[in-house]
Amino acid sequence: MKIKKYRIGITASLALLSAFMTIAVSAANDTQNSAGQCELFNSAEILDESTLNIKVLKDWHVDKLTGTTRQKLIEINVAEWAPGQDYRIPVRMIVPLKGKAKGFHITGANPYEGLMKGSKPSDFEAKLLAGGVGIVKTHVKAPRAIPGKKGLQGKMERLFIKELNPRYTTVWIWPMTLMRATTAAYAETEYFEKGKVAGSGSSKNGISPAVALINDERFTATHSDHAFAYFSPTRSGDRQEVDKVDAANNAFFKAVKAGDIALKQKRAKWYQSVMVAGKRSMYKRAQKAGKSMDELQNLQNCFGSKLYITKHWDQLMKRDVDIFFQPGTHDYVAYDILWGAQNHAQLPVYYEPNGGHDQTPHDDSEKDEQNKEAFLWQHFFGGESLLKPPTSSHKVNQNKLNVSVRFEQGTQPINGRIWWMYDRAPEGSAPFLHAPIPEEQSMEMEFDAKTGVWTADIELQQGFSRIDFFSNHGLKVNGYKHYLSSPYTRVELPLNP
């Protein structure tokens, strides 16, 4: 059965910003900017309750929908985002009927109209509340989708291009929204006490809690779907890597023009918006506005020092936080999965095969995956442990690729499936997004109980120079189906395997 296309409500601002954040510069312009010279978030501003300017929309009350929670709806000032203009956003707080909530789960993926109404907790949220964990819901959306903010997004993009001030980006205001909502919740001392604060969501709502985790020590976990985690060479603007992407893009669109590749105009424009250093990116617009390479590189270094989980791994592990990423294999926000696996295999990752913004998942992708629930339950309540990132090894044996995956420590999975594709285009290019894993290039793995290894033998096709592969493995943890992936791996093949 075909799976419907996975759509997250992609915004132009996120597309443009993602493309902008990969800046092509020459080695001669490798101007370094230390983290100390880049203050993207200010702790005093985040924690200042007096500047929230809270407007109570509905004071604490027992919700009428279930009668099992107490709720309060407020509007807060996140910050003066545009000069002279406060950015005000609703926040709904939900606590158990009796006693205080200790910590909370916070999300921004809530429709504005829904926040205005009484909120019935989902089955999982009801379990969090029963365990004494609060719920905080706010609104992390494109500004143009928020009542009263029409035209603000375009204004902020113009200000950003003019001044190159990171504060004028959505990557600043979205995490800031979560952090300021946290300040508002903890100001309610009769209803909340300090505890764990876990964020989750997809796309902008996956990026935002990850950035908040880095920059706000009150946050203790992020479960981030379709969000960036790695500051890879391509993302940081390595000239050689970006040249590879440019060459792949040029060849791809030349083939489209010649009629060799069928591509609808709407899809082609989307690729141009989101692919690395695309013609419609903010980077190109900033260049056109007269910004120098040094200015753009300094800005990129500033972003790089504050936004990427793996850049702060040691510091985050000292804080004993929990992290889980679900980047998808075909996503423009999280295209650097190969480099990430090669350099940060310690990051727990689940790859949805062919998953990504506006992509159609593979037919064999896991349809019973409950990673968010398994992750949040374990974070707040403990119990059975989640899977730890496995190791994988491989060997080319005549016309076969032998793959072995081992979970060296802790919990062991009960199943495994592997996917592969040949001669994949450079990360972040249009053909990287366009060419899916073929439906037939997937198979179940076998488990050797004596060695504790999952294995697969892939029959190699002739005429390809390399093969990419990864595997997914799962089991039920604390009542929820949990999956984890082996490192995304690329193997160079002999000419005549």
Under CATH, the topology of the largest domain is which? Immunoglobulin-like
Within the largest sheet, what's the order of strands?
Answer: 1-2-3-5-4-6-7-8
Level of helix content?
25-40%
Low-confidence stretches: 1-13, 22-36
Q: How many extended strands?
A: 17
Largest sheet: 8 strands, mixed
Tell me the overall shape: globular
Count of the domains: 2
The radius of gyration over CA amounts to: 23 Å
For the record, the CATH class of the largest domain is Mainly Beta
Number of helices: 16
Mean pLDDT: 90
Kindly, what is the distance between the CA atoms of the first and last residues, rounded to a whole number of angstroms? 34 Å
Query: Beta-strand level of the residues, as a percent range?
Result: 15-25%
CATH architecture of the largest domain: Sandwich
